Amino acid sequence: MKCNNSGKERVPDFLTKTGEFLLDLIYPRRCPVCDDALPFRGHLICTTCAEKLVPVREPRCRKCGRMLSFDTDEYCRDCVTVSHTFDRCISAFVYNDPMQESVFRFKYGNRREYVQFFAQAISEMYKNEIMDLKAEALIPVPLHKNRQEKRGFNQAEILAFKLSDMLGIPVRNDLLIRVKDTEPQKMLSREERRKNLKKAFQLSLCDVKLKRVIVIDDIYTTGSTLDEIAFLLKGAGVREVYGLTLCSGTPL
Fold it and tell me: Strand 88-94 to strand 201-203: parallel, antiparallel, or no bridges (unpaired)?
C-alpha cells in the first residue's frame, strides 16, 4: 500500500492568513521611500510615494540606459564622448531625492527588506528585456571586506539574489573580489572615480567559463565601476558584459 503522506500536513488557509495578519501587526512591512508602515502585507510601497518615483522610460541611451531628452537622440552626452567597456546598462529609476533617501536607508540603515520592492520593480519593468540578453549569470559588485564587515551585508548581492529568484538566472558571487578599499565615490569627479577604481577588483578564477553576464549594482553614475569589472571579465573570456542597476544618477 502506497502512502502519499510526505510527513507535512497542509496548513489551512485561514491559519496562514491569520499568521500574516499577526505579522503585519507585530512586524509591519514598511514603505521603502517614506519608511511608514504599510496597511496591507501585499503592498510594497505606499500610494503617495509610488507617485514620487520616476521610472526610467523611453527614449533611453542605447549604451548606459539613461533617459534622453529627445526621441531623435540615440546616446546621451556622456556615452557620445566616453568609450565604455561594458556592452549596455539598464536602470529602473531616476536617482531623484526620494530614491536617494530610500537607497541611503537600504545601504546604511540596514533596511534589507526594501530589496523586495526594488527587485519586483526591476522585474516588472524589464523582465523581458533582461531575459532577451540571454545572460548566464548575475554578478553583484563586491564590497571590500572592511566595508562589508562594517555594513553587515552587500546591497548589490542581496538585490542579485532576489532578482535571481524572480528571473531564474543564477548568481555568481564567487568570481570577483574587491581588493582595494576605495574612497566613497559620491564627491569624486569622473576622472577621480576612474582612478579610484583602477585595480580595485580581482578575479578569483582565471577562466570564467561564461559568455554573457549581468553585473548588478545599486546606482549608475559614470559607468566607472561597470567598466572596470567589464575589463576584467572580458579579459577572462566573457564576450558580453551588461549592467543592471536600481537607479540612474545625474551625469557628472
Answer: unpaired
Evaluate whether residue 5 is within a structural domain.
Answer: no
Domain end: 34, 52, 70, which one? Answer: 52
In terms of average pLDDT, the best of 39-48, 157-166, 199-208 is 157-166
Note whether 52 and 137 are within 8 A (CB).
no
Note whether 140 and 32 are same-domain residues.
Answer: no
Name the residue range of residue 47's domain.
Answer: 13-52
Could you read off the pLDDT of 136-148 as tens digits, one per residue?
A: 999 999 999 999 9
Number of domains in the chain: 2
Contact (CB, 8 A) for 176 and 203:
yes
> Based on the domain organization, do 144 and 160 belong to the same domain?
yes
Q: What average pLDDT does the structure give for the chain? A: 89
Residues 179, 20: Cα–Cα separation, whole Å: 43
177 three-class SS: strand
CATH number of the domain that 185 lies in? 3.40.50
**How many C-beta atoms lie closer than 10 Å to residue 115's C-beta?**
21
Same domain, 157 and 174: yes
Out of 103-117, 180-194, 219-233, 238-252, least confident range: 180-194
Q: Is residue 236 pLDDT above 50, yes or no?
A: yes
**CB contact set of 220 (below 8 Å; sequence gap of 6+):** 64, 65, 66, 89, 91, 226, 243, 245, 247, 248, 249
